[in-house]
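Suppose you are handed a protein chain with no further information: no name, no annotation, nothing but its sequence. What can you learn? This example shows the usual starting point.
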Amino acid sequence: MEHIYSTADVEITHRYQYWHDVVVQHCIPAASRTLTDGPFEGRLSVRAVGAVDIVEMTADAHHWRRDAQHLRSGPEDNLWIGYMHEGRAEIAQDERAVSFASGDMVLYDAARQFDFSLMPQCAYLIRFPRSLLLQRCPGAERLTARIIDQQKPAATQLRALIKQAVDIDFCGMRPSTAIQFGCTLLDLAAIALEFQMEEKDPVRERDLYGRISAYILRHLEDPELNLETIAAKHNVSTRTVTRAFARHNKTPMGMVWKLRLEASYRALAEGRSRTVTEAAFDHGFSDLSHFSRSFRKTFGYSPQRLLIR
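A reasonable first move is to predict its three-dimensional structure. Written in structure tokens, the prediction is:
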């Protein structure tokens, strides 16, 4: 489903407030101001492609600031990629600032403060669920406010796939098509970001949290995966593992359960698991009732719903 908003039919004196309210509703709570003296004009379309949201924006120059107050009052932990198809922008986050123009892509993090000035003739803002992107590319949040190098593998393909996602009409297709397309977008974004980290973050493999997160992903379906085996494989105590995760406000087994649920969701949504039992057992769950309860609590509906397509 696509939602389209435009200031064209709004009274001139109320246009920017309308624009602010629409962007806050569909993107990230933040403060904003126009950077133009004349009547503000803007158009926004929002579409969900599976778990990924794509916002297409055309607007006069304006500025957004997300500060500590917004982080407290409007929590939002998704990761975003801004793709400037035509126009220019500047974003500052994590004590870095970068200007980007037509053809450039930049990652930014809604869970941290930022300043974002846009002059978009046509920009795409892509919302990636944090857990799903970091599951595929641990440590990606360290790449904020850097232009994604188009010479690295998968970056050009990601840019093309974003444009295709905007142009495709998913309404007449099976619901699973958009879900699969969204998963492909997530996979490709993760691959592109992984190659960006190749030289920029060489120490990440020495980081215990990062190494354990990667280990969990590789052994997610192992029924013997638990805190003790994780600690033993990394030659540290269980307390050390727990402390490493606590610094990220997480627990190791909480990550295991979350990733297993998300993997089972994708398997059901994409048709790789034909039954709920198969999805549960293939992803490390031994108690079907507990799996179903956890699934409903996490996603808001039972796993059986994904089998009805």
